[in-house]
Amino acid sequence: MYGFGRRNTPEAFRQSCDRFFYLENLQETTAAEEGDKSTAATAATAPPVRKTITEALRQLLNKAVKDCIDDATGWAFVGHIGTYLRQTQPDFDTRSFGYDKLSSLLKALGGLQFRHDDASRMYCRRIPYSDLLKLLSNDAMPKFRNKDGWAKIHALETYLASRWSYQEYGFASFTALLETIHNAEIRNDSVRLMQTANSLETGE
């Protein structure tokens, strides 16, 4: 059963539908696709949807990616993620969060890698832990370390926060992640990476 209504539609009704569509989102799409001035004017009177990823949305998307991973390849087909989200939340619509496509929303989530197959289908997966460490060593550290090789932990954490979250890898803090790197030396609020035979060694 398909349902239609405004954003103040009771949740019980929305969840009882196989799919629920917000009229506000449909108005915006119609105005954009048809160029109808009256429809566009109506949509324009509504406040614009701000691009935002709440903690609840972040958890939902991360669970969707995890549950849609193909065990054989380690990648999740974005089309399957979309189906999963609609089955989990009938009123799920990326436009409600300011994004026109699921792929755009997933890219904004951070912490994911993307690829396309020969048929141009998109897949994603959480960035492998080893790649995260390379990102720290080859990208973040050179930007913030001083002449002695020390970088402020908070600066590194802030810089990397838009790309991935240490909590998603089971760490209670960013410092806890750094402590798993054997060649990382931590002093008060700073860290430096000592040169070893392998540029990065972890306790995993």
From TrEMBL:
Residue ranges of domain HTH OST-type in the record: 53-128
Family annotation (Pfam families): OST-HTH
Gene3D superfamilies found in the cross-reference section: LOTUS domain-like (3.30.420.610)
Domain of life: Bacteria
CDD domains attached to this UniProt entry: LabA_like_C
InterPro entries named in the record: LOTUS-like, OST-HTH/LOTUS_dom
The name this protein goes by in its record: OST-HTH/LOTUS domain
Provenance organism: Cardiobacterium valvarum
